[in-house]
Amino acid sequence: MLKRWIVVAMMSWLVVGFLAPQKAVACSCVDMSVEKRYEVFDTVFLGTVLERSVIKGDNVFEVERIWKGELPNGSVNTNDAAGCGTATFEVGQQYVVYAEFLLGEMKTSVCSGNKTAVAASEDIAILNQISEHIVDPKTEQTSSDRTMYIVLGAIVLGSFVILLVRMRIHKHK
């Protein structure tokens, strides 16, 4: 008799457990540091949204700074393949965007850590520190390229000055 009550109690508990409303989370984002996002994502950039297609999920950016990777056509897709939600961008707003190359295109989502430039001042400072080569998309020169040209120019100018001084010394002898 006791066994029968135990079985009935357990069955009741299971039925109530399955029928009771429960909270379900469809997706949760992993909290990552800026350094970890820089490591994980293929492209990290600062850009202003020029065009936005809600249906196709494409966002075209004018890229101001690239810390990592490249964005050849300036387009990032926000259609969410993982089901976590679509990243929402507003035309005219400037964003720090973390994107990855998936299924033949650059993609980002609500979990990527994208922020408006105003809200991303800390991210920008950290990205400036950890990126070795900041690419200016207008000139496509890295900061190390510019430094190399300056050093090379200084060497050529210094060599020219030394040559002129030597020529003057030999002329006076």
UniProtKB/TrEMBL annotation:
SUPFAM superfamilies: TIMP-like. The keyword Nucleotidyltransferase does not apply. Residues 1-26 form the signal peptide. Keywords: Membrane, Signal, Transmembrane, Transmembrane helix. The chain crosses the membrane at residues 147-165. This is Tissue inhibitor of metalloproteinase. It comes from Candidatus Cohnella colombiensis.
